[in-house]
Amino acid sequence: MTVLILSEPNDFHAAAVNWGLEMLNVPADLWDRSQLANSSTLAINVSDDSCSLVVAGLHLKTQYKSVWNRRGLKPAPNRRVHPSDMYYAHREAVRAVEVAMLMLEEEFHGALWINSRSSQIRADLKPNQLAVARRAGFLIPETLYSNDPREVRNFASIGRVIAKSHFPAVWTDQSGTRRWFHTTRFHSESSSDFSLFACPMIYQKELDIDSELRVIVMGRSVFCVKRKRVARNDVPSEVRDIRVEDPISSIYALDERTKSACIAYVKLMNLNYAAIDLAICTDGRLLFLEGNESGQFLFLEHDVPSVPILDAFCRFLASGDPCFEYEAGDRRIRLDEFTRTSSCSELIDRLHKVWSGKFPASFEFDEVLHGSEAR
Question: What is the pTM of this model?
């Protein structure tokens, strides 16, 4: 039985997991959806008698045990297309991939999906995450999602408020400096009504956070690492985003109530996997921040090598079991072993070239793990 990985060749997580599956003697196919209409093709045939999907390089007659919907959902625009036709051609390629994903779900409905596209769409909406987290039993931050200037300013009057977006924002300013929008403190007095109206944002009451927990749920297995926040001198004081800090990481034992709430959240979202971020406040309260249905996990093992996260995820895929409970095998699939392989070295070299001119040329291996999610 084969595993299908939906990702890109330059995705570190996909490369590490593919290597791990090889160590377990589990065959895997990779479909790079980002290259549709660039270097790959698909064909959907519909008639009175049948409906079929053919994707170049995939053996869809095989019964996939598991499908990992990792990244690369949207095809890259084909730069050879005339600029006046680019938008239309790219829009059609995006729609073709969406149709193919729904057909894959139908064809392999009995496989373990991590996670299905239909569930992913719902789980990716941050306000919906908070609503579901409440149902699962979590405390949540007081939140407003709006583009109404009056509502936003009224909300900001409660005290310190942060602003964050659904998607990472990266742009180059007039000086040529590459900049990111991170979760940051909101200042109502310096924001125009038009800017609030033109871009809906998520506003939350700022929490006094001591540490954050990254919880990984795979079926019924739960892994947790505590990341104590440590501010960096080169990060503006207004930024409230642990992704640009240097947290101190350690294994954290969740109490049974919180562990059950994490599993309940994943089930309510109709997911089989999620990366959940929780906040431990200075007053001792534990609050739900967000859940990422395709969130990264390897940085946890990089920071705390005793966490067997790569081994667990590979065995999760190999099991095909949505109720998976991790048990260590005779030989653990280790991240540090993958980092010493030639395939990992070649991948890092490719990433240096891909990011050249966009990010610091001196980035190290740990930045590949910690930073690529924001990129």
Answer: 0.86
